[in-house]
Amino acid sequence: MQLPPLGLYIHLPWCERKCPYCDFNSHQATDIPEMWYVDTLLQDLRDDLSLLQGRQIETLFIGGGTPSLFSTKAIRRLLQQIATLLPLEATLEATLEANPGSAEADKFAGFCEAGINRLSLGIQSFDDDRLQALGRIHNSDQAHAAIEFACATGFDSFNIDLMHGLPGQTPVCAEADLRAALAYKPPHLSWYQLTIEPNTIFHKRPPLLPVEDALANMQQQGERLLAEAGYGQYEVSAYCEPGYNCRHNLNYWSFGDYLGIGAGAHGKVSFPDGRIHRYAKKRQPEEYLASGSGGFTATRRELDRDEIAGEFVLNALRLNEGFTLDLFSARTGLDTAALEPQLESLCGRELLVMHGDCVKATDLGRRFLDSVVAEFFPG
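Structure (tokenized):
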């Protein structure tokens, strides 16, 4: 089995305030032990070096929490030390998530100098009432300022993260949000509908969300606006100008490998003999920080054959272009016969379509993607 590309995900778990819709591993804190945490991350990475198996790191993504709460000094030290431990590809894509409430022009410049070449800005909305309903700590002025900082700093690329279907939002307001984002000509847009996830405040106390007709209107208007502005949709919620797709996320969706370091970080690693492992690091920051060498991993398991096929399809069908059968075999080590019964059934129901050896979801299939993917899992 040929080993797939390899990325590195780094989780910085702290934020200023937990948003009511957020189900990520994030923890509210005012006093962050950032240098202690950086040193712990580096030891965590040293423990995982054997998983490289001769590969270079092609992409790096620092997520959270709110990574931009960390100082430029801490991010610089982290990246400098990573470069001494890992072989990094010359064209490394290095992304850091930033929230407008912690955005400063000098800080963005410092991140850029440290080696970050792509920012992902958690804007969510430019409407102060909608931001308040989402529990965000920034306002619309700060949202605009953060994007202006990113543009002025000269990042190779940046992403604007924008939601629709927000509490009290109308289609007119959703369109205004998207037009405000497009005015900056961002290379990349993550544009997606708010969903209510378990174990969130919104799940316990659901807000009043737009009705289905309004949501469909927002989606249709948004897709039209994005297409007219020259943005191609390459994944369920990802749009970009030509050449600016997020390589790190594409690696996830094409069933690539990634190391995960940090509290609650997840990783996936393939081996030449066909085994594929998933693992997760200890979730609570205090427990993670107290761990010594060899003690950062909370869970590790080997995927069985049926899981491998299902997980590949779960990721790959999110892509507009779908996947090729050759890629399926290369990334899973399985024969394509493992997919034949499901492909025949789903193509017959016009939920999937095949052109040559390329498989992708139809428009109908994308509407019911969860149900389509479920057919590739046992039971």
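The chain has two domains: 6-251, 317-379. The CA atoms of residues 106 and 228 lie 34 Å apart.
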